Amino acid sequence: MALSFKTTNQSITARDGFLLDAILFEPEKPRACIQINSATGVRKEFYKNFAEYLAGQGYAVLIFDYRGIGKSRPRSLRGFAAELHEWGKNDMAAVLDWMDALYPRLKKYFIGHSAGGQQIGFMDNYDKVSKAISVSSSTGYWKWLSSPYKYFTLLVWHVLVPCTVSVLGYVPSSWFGLGEDLPKGVAKEWRSWCLRQNYFGNFLGETTPNFFASIKIPIHFIYPTDDNIATERSVASLRGFYTGAQTSVERVDPDDYGLRKIGHFGFFSRSAKDTLWPKVVHFFEGLS
Predict the structure, then answer these.
(1) pTM score > 0.90 for this model?
(2) Which range of residues forms the domain containing residue 11?
């Protein structure tokens, strides 16, 4: 039986003072805290049903919008300064500090979706996290994506991003059904990573922080067999950055769970509530 919980809107100050919009799902006596770190260009509300499920299992759960996304977006993205690695360095880190201040005695767990599972290594407070699950998280090197999808990404990186950034000063992803609009700096940094085989590895310790080797926690990677982005090779590539962590990988086939498809986003669909979502609880509670 699911536990009752309260839902409150929150405003969290990022490391550099930027205000982030968040929602906290809070049972009366939570057994641990879960921070959900979104995929690129995805609003926090996408994870609302999943967060409610976890709160019903007894966790205090926080979802939030990165700077430039959803309700953490300024009125205009033109001229708005933000880079992709800041989502980990300044936003995810600040949200974790906020949760730790609220519940200092409880364990902190991470669930990262796509890019949200890449950036723990950009956080100087990574040691506050006890366990992490990365769902459909991988490096985004274009050649390692599935065909023909990878050729579409070349069009995005070589035509859509340069042209819209030059003309508009941001990337209007929503015009093309590609998620939330992206700030110029976020899109440009993402592009520079995805066009390199070593992804952000070329920039670690230079333009981005690098705490990856220091992370020692259990990290479980879950990715579907029908994911165009998180493929076997690209997931293994991201896993390779966490050299000190206790990593494990699970590949899920939609047919095995009675699902028509999962893809890059379907893990968080309500259709996966009874089949895939319990995996999260089992991992955090040491039942798997």
Answers:
(1) yes
(2) 5-139+211-284
